[in-house]
Amino acid sequence: MSDLQVSLEVPGRVHAAFAAERGDVIAVIGPNGAGKSSMVKAIAGLVPATGSVLLDGTDLVTRPTRERGLGVVFQDQLLFPHLDARRNVAFGPRARGLAKAAALARADAWLERLGVADLAERRPGQLSGGQAQRVAIARALATEPDLLLLDEPMSGLDVGVATALRIELAAHLAEFGGISVLVTHDAIDALTVANRVLVLDRGAVVQDGTPDEVSQRPATDHVARLVGLNVVHRERSLLAFPPSAVTLSLGEPEGSARLRWHGEVGRVTTHGGAVRVVVRTAGTGPELIADVTPAAATELGLVPGRAVWASTKETSVRAYDEPRR
Ligand SMILES: Nc1ncnc2c1ncn2[C@@H]1O[C@H](COP(=O)(O)OP(=O)(O)OP(=O)(O)O)[C@@H](O)[C@H]1O
Question: Quick check: keyword Nucleotide-binding in the entry (predicted)?
Fold first, then answer.
């Protein structure tokens, strides 16, 4: 039996099941409203749910939040405003029975590890967003939980701050012996920090795999976009191909070994040295992304509304079965 077995229903919002082993770092991704936050909050006991959350065989679902023994880093319940950083971090170990001096010493050690030891005396109101997030992570890890839940821990941080914190967080989570569940909007978080990725869509788990599996064979359009691929359906298969493998032309492309779609140019942006063009295909066809050279974009007159053909070689396409739901 797995160390963690979750099977939860939040009526109308989530009906999801997954299992995890100690040491797993699971990224939960999916579009807005997919139920990611609701699922982790239900695991924490902050959203009413039915089902079970078996941690080492014990069902937590009937216990109040504070008796679940979890570490949480949630946007809307970060730090106690009236306690300084050190006391915020010492709070959990104290509540679990550690003597005051030992709890404060543990807090200092965690603040040191998160690089914020010099801020120990500050209250949350005197910390920047990134500093507060480091203290919140220290607070969650200081309780040495078996299960750590993080909901968008990098959101709202500057890119530079988020990058530094992501690298450190990856190291802390890898070292932490428990199970981490990390909700994120960011493909980089999912692919670099986690060893498993759960894709949620409309409240259900639609894909569960390693970062490689999910990024090479995305099961949903949302994940395909996150990892920068086009995905189209063909019968029961999915076909994935990168924007750089898409050719745009004004006339219908020749040759049988090409997949082709007729459509019109949508948004046009720059992407690295290329011009990134969204092509809205006709009817219920897919929305495709093509990266073309600036010269080609000029020659074809790629402005929004222009009718174009998008095509790709069969050999550029990775075909795989649609994951079973
Ligand atoms: N407090 C609430 N009461 C009722 N419905 C809610 C509540 N919070 C969220 N929902 C609904 O539940 C569904 C899942 O929302 P949730 O916030 O869990 O998704 P999410 O995947 O975390 O989204 P996001 O990426 O936008 O944060 C949505 O349809 C949302 O409107």
Answer: yes
* Domain boundary assignment for the chain: 4-221, 230-321
d(CA 222, CA 29): 9
* Token pair in block for residue 174: 């890898």
Question: How far, in Å, is the centroid of ligand 1 from the Cα of 200?
Answer: 12
Distance 38 CA to ligand 1 centre (A): 6
* CA 152 to ligand 1: nearest atom: 27
CATH class of 4-221: alpha beta
Task: Report the nearest atom of ligand 1 relative to the CA of 200.
Answer: 21
Grouped pLDDT means (10 residues each) for the chain, 325 residues: 94 95 94 94 94 94 89 82 96 92 96 94 92 92 94 81 84 91 86 91 93 90 86 89 94 87 94 92 86 94 94 92 73
What are the tokens at 42? 């239900």
Q: Using an 8 Å Cβ cutoff, are 112 and 143 in contact?
A: no
Q: pTM value?
A: 0.85
The residue whose C-alpha atom lies closest to atom 25 belonging to ligand 1 is: 32
Q: Do domains 4-221 and 230-321 have the same CATH topology?
A: no
**Residue 35 CA, ligand 1 centroid: distance in Å:** 5
Distance 205 CA to ligand 1 centre (A): 15
CA of 277 to the centre of ligand 1 (A): 31
**How distant is the alpha carbon of residue 152 from its chain centre?**
8
> Does residue 36 have its Cβ closer than 6 Å to ligand 1?
yes
Does residue 34 have its Cβ closer than 6 Å to ligand 1?
yes
Q: What residue's CA is closest to ligand 1, atom 10?
A: 13
**Are 147 and 4 spatial neighbours (Cβ–Cβ below 8 Å)?**
yes
Both structure tokens of 184? 């994120």
The ipTM estimated for the assembled molecules is: 0.94
For the 230-321 domain, the top CATH level (class) is: mainly beta
- State how far the Cα of 224 lies from the Cα of 5, in Å rounded to an integer: 27
